Amino acid sequence: MPDTTPPVRSLTAKSNLDALRGEARRWRKAITTGDARASERFRRAMPGHAGAPKLREVQQALAREHGFASWAALRQELEDRARTAAERVRLFLEKAANRYGTSPATRKWGDYEADGPARGALAARLLARHPELARRDIHTAVAAHDLAAVRGFLQRDPDLVRDRSDFDGWTPLLRLAYARLPAEGMSDALSIATLLLDAGADPDAGWSDETPEFTPLVGVIGGGEAGQSEHPQAQAFADLLLARGADPMAAQALYNTSLGPDSTEWLQRLWSASAARGETGRWTGPAPEALGGARAASALAYLLGNAVPDHIEQARWLLAHGADANGVNFYSREPVIKHALLTGRLDVVALLEAHGAVRPALSDQERFLAAAATGDLAALRHLAQAHPAFLGAPEAMFVAIRRQRAEVALALLDLGMSPDVADDKGLTALHVTTHVGAADIARLLIDRGAAIDPFEQRYGGAPLTHAIFNGQPQMAALIAPFSHNFRGLCFAGATDRLRALLAEAPDRANRQDRPGEPALFCLPDDEDRAVEVAELLLAHGADPAFRNPLGLTPAQAARRRGLDEAAAVIEDAADEPAARPPG
Question: Do 385 and 295 belong to one domain?
Fold first, then answer.
């Protein structure tokens, strides 16, 4: 029986990516020309492989010969060897923390990459290769969660506890609170936090003077519009910060948690800390900026507006702690009880009434919306017949979608509502189905002739890209077979549909549906599907050397997203010019 264990070769000081690329090309050429030794060597590295290998599969075999699990891992090792020490430090500090969309280089909000586990995993890999990073300075020591190194730095210079890094302006305690390495790499977080606080760290020091709301407590609690993860030891870490003087009126944290699951855990924890200080009056007094500022009646009032209609447990807690049931939503300026009525949350209406809210009289149009929300088809039909103009507005269909009431959507269409009904910014009913996974209603709209690819004007998105952004892959799969939205299909990894559209018009591979963003910049998040899409686009002439307005090539953009295999495919595409048609 032949030995299938691939030989292990070692990288040397002279090893470089160009040489290994050339070796892979020569190896593949030898296989395709019938070289038996080359084919046997490939089978040893890739047992079970059938058919003629692609270049990336030969690269995978070459990586295995060098003891790496993948070509991407081999590339990462070579790239890491080529980095300067300062570059490693910057990359480690950048990736080791949640950053809430703020670039550490510019310290401004914008298009900075999303937070997520891949960032912390990259930082952890870098630290594993270069443990000396932890001993560079107090900031790398904290990011590495090296208790002994942090202690050593503070013993030599106690003032370092207040040092703001030149890289991003963060203090050591801030870095610790926002850190998100894999959990096993953060086991000493509480010990390090205690050490920093004992040395005089300010538990309320924010990112900068411009963003004082983003304190260590906010970083520990997590949450927010992008659903950032909480610290693995969030409760104990928060309790430590509060015990050491952190302000329990953590307005940005309260805002962030009001957007997540219907939980009262953090409300209760922060309220209890305020109560221990005799400061609960701050919850009913003037609201901090993150909770509406001067335009909000109080922090409790603002939070109740966020809780109604969908977070009944939070609403119950807020009412029990002094929120006014007759309050108004900060954004709409409408009574919160009206929001509950118009969204069909009669349980929330009853809760508010039990706390003294007065049910407002509704106009016929508002009654029409309430009927759609509760599924009262008789009232819906009666009001539509009395007021045909109601069928030209989108709100009733939108609420039916959000409440997952397919029978109401069907009734509205039968009454004459357009399947393309939209708001003043072009957000259509089909868009809204992708926000909540209303597949039955989406199918109904499509069957009734809804436009598949309308672009709304707020964010410039079509239903397919809305489905992807909102984490609704089943909705993307439902829409993709009907879509001509090439960019969205790339993000969805819909290779069958992409292949069909490319057969009709191969130049789609280089079109810029958004200025400066051809399709190679629009790969799906899943690594395997990203590779498939990249290979398909490259086979139809996509330009791997194009640079976007940020100066990035498609491969560089892919690597920033953690799509290392796809990046390798794109970077090596120029090595196979015959695989791509000219032009």
Answer: no
Segment 301-328, tens digit of pLDDT: 999 999 999 999 999 999 999 999 999 9
Q: What is the pLDDT of residue 369?
A: 97
Residue 224: is it exposed, middle or buried by C-beta count within 10 angstroms (0-12/13-18/19+)? buried
279 token code pair? 């400061």
Q: Does any domain span residue 138?
A: yes
User: Does pLDDT of 272 surpass 70?
Assistant: yes
In degrees, to the nearest 5, what angle opens at C-alpha 509 toward C-alphas 506 and 515? Answer: 130
pLDDT beyond 50 at 581: no
Judge whether 283 lies within some domain: yes
Q: How many domains does the chain have?
A: 5
320/374 same-domain check = no
Flag whether pLDDT at 3 surpasses 50.
Answer: no
Q: Indicate whether 40 pLDDT > 70.
A: yes
DSSP letter string, 337-391: HHHHHHTT-HHHHHHHHHTTPPPPPPPHHHHHHHHHHHT-HHHHHHHHHH-GGGG
**pLDDT band (50, 70, 90) for residue 6:** low
Residue 116, domain member (yes or no) = yes
In a domain, 159, yes or no: yes
Task: Write the DSSP string, 476-533.
Answer: HHHHGGG---HHHHHHHT-HHHHHHHHHH-GGGGG--SBTTB-GGG---SSHHHHHHH
